[in-house]
Design brief:
Layout lengths: L2 E5 L4 H10 L5 E6 L2 H9 L3 E4 L5 H7 L5 E4 L7 H15 L3 E5 L11 H16 L3 E6 L11 H5 L2 E4 L5 E2 L4 H13 L7 E5 L5 E2 H12 L4 E4 L2 H10 L4 H15 L9 H6 L6 H7 L6
Parallel strand pairs: 1-2, 1-4, 2-3, 4-5, 5-6, 6-9, 7-11
Antiparallel strand pairs: 8-10
């Protein structure tokens, strides 16, 4: 029976992955970034251990006894550095297989900054010679029910994406893919999978589907990059993160994130969730 270390178990994908592995035979260690989170999860009957991406030794200790790891790194300025330390820790701890949640169209030589940051971590994993599977999910549907929810409540989505399409993916589908691989990676090792939802949607399509689900009028207005950056600054977003998010919108406008793959169904046997279904399930986020 596998013993799985989940790095970032309290995050969006990590939480969904804990749920996906709940009724399986896998023994799970939930790695979290703060002792209080570890205490909370331990109170729920989970084996939770604190670790810190900037402290390799803490990661080695947290991974002790585990043979498989799920790695997702928060959007922070030292993303690539943290990824490098995590891979070094995995080698020292004896991890035998890594499932990594990266980013859509990521590459170590990508021409856009966020894709390059994610791609560097992916390259660290490949160079480590530890067997792996890299998942490269598109933009999350859950963004609309979390940090964009207040904007949607105002009735207008304002982003600099023009009319370009994105094949948004539900975080639960990312977790389902990761769970399947952590339980049985046969035939999937040392491969990369681009994960998308079942359709490409322009932001006007997103607004229309949220309007239909929530019975309130939501529209989309394209804005300039400068206005978008000012909005992010007003929200208190760090400068590095702003630059990463702006680089992402540029790739969207180039039409690079609208492609649809069948990777979710290939890995899990079930088709990817639709945005319409997501909107119906999360309508309370916009009330």
């Amino acid at each position: 029976m596998s013993k799985v270390f989940i790095a970032g178990a309290a995050g969006n994908i990590g939480t969904a992955l804990l749920a996906a592995l709940h009724d399986t035979d896998a023994e799970v260690v939930a790695g979290v970034h703060a002792p209080d989170k570890a205490k909370t999860l331990s109170g729920l009957g989970m084996n939770a251990r604190p670790f810190y991406f900037q402290d390799k030794d803490s990661m080695v200790q947290a991974m002790e006894g585990c043979d498989r790891m799920f790695l997702v790194i928060p959007l922070q300025e030292k993303l690539a550095r943290y990824g490098h330390l995590a891979v070094q820790a995995a080698k020292e701890a004896g991890i035998e297989y890594i499932v990594r949640s990266s980013g859509y169209a990521a590459s170590s030589d990508a021409h856009w900054r966020l894709g390059r940051e994610h791609g560097m971590v992916d390259q660290f994993i490949e160079d480590s010679k530890i067997p792996f599977t890299i998942l490269r999910p598109n933009t999350f549907m859950q963004n609309f029910s979390s940090y964009l929810a207040e904007m949607i409540k105002s009735g207008t989505i304002t982003l600099p994406e023009e009319d370009a399409k994105v094949s948004y993916i539900d975080i639960r589908d990312i977790a389902s893919c990761a769970a399947k691989l952590l339980l049985d990676s046969d035939g999937f090792e040392d491969k990369y999978y681009a994960l998308t939802g079942p359709e490409g949607l322009a932001m006007s399509d997103v607004a229309a589907q949220i309007s239909k689900a929530s019975a309130q009028e939501v529209n989309y207005t394209a804005i300039s990059e400068d206005d978008y950056m000012e909005t992010l600054k007003d929200m208190g977003v760090p400068e590095w993160n702003i630059n990463m998010l702006v680089s992402l919108t540029r790739v969207v406008k180039l039409g690079m994130l609208g492609n649809v793959t069948k990777a979710v169904e290939h890995v899990t046997g079930s088709p990817a969730r639709t945005f319409a279904g997501f909107a119906t399930e999360h309508v309370t986020a916009w009330e």
